[in-house]
Amino acid sequence: MLINCVAYENGSRLADMAVEEISDYLAKPDCFVWVALRDATAQELDQMQEEFALHELAVEDARHGHQRPKIEEYGDSVFAVMHLLEEEEGEFNIGEVNVFVGQNYVLSVRNHSQQGFLGVRERCEREPHLLSHGSGFVLYALMDAVVDRYFPVMDRLESELEEIEEQIFAKGAARSNIKRLYDLKRKITFLKHAVAPMMEATGKLSGGRGPAICANSRDYFRDVHDHLARINASLENIRDTIGTAIQVNL
Questions:
Q1: For the domain with range 2-249, which CATH number is right: 3.30.460.20, 2.40.30.10, 3.10.150.10, 3.30.70.660?
Q2: What tens digit of pLDDT does each residue of 146-175 get?
Q3: Is the pTM value of this prediction over 0.85?
């Protein structure tokens, strides 16, 4: 489903447009196109591939889904995969957002997730001097929004661990503690699988040998990398504490 299809010029919103007009706007100087899809069909992806001239391997990954978080370069374009975590009735639902980035376009495809990015677009449009940096800055803004949503998840996991620790020496609670600790360990693993590969990928974007289209946003990607490193360190601490708690409980 198409969410947005907008053209920008020098950081300012130029026009909403039909999908068939994308290639026309891409041909204009100082113009870039930002399109957002949700649960895209194979037909929609084929249409986007034709309009943006997307690499077939990147489109294949987006079509099949269930990809490991990563950032890959295809010539002068970049393809990014990020995981979106949503907790429903104590269980994690893992969504995915695929982002195609070229010199003058950004295409995001969100799958199996209720977490939208309309707020990201609105914030970017309120800062045209930053949006004028182009597609590299938009990739940063989307990535930053994904990472920011990991912090509340991690906070809830830390709170859950603290609750279990308070019950470690409670009489008759050993079996329920073990069950909760192993359930918590499984959730930590889900978040770890989302964070660790992405941390490695953002390290490349913030380095001197990163993609050219991200060159003017390296400082921003470095900030995202620092956030991911902080989350990753906290997850390691939580996992170590869970291991100790299991031993104490036994």
A1: 3.30.460.20
A2: 999 999 999 999 999 999 888 888 887 888
A3: yes
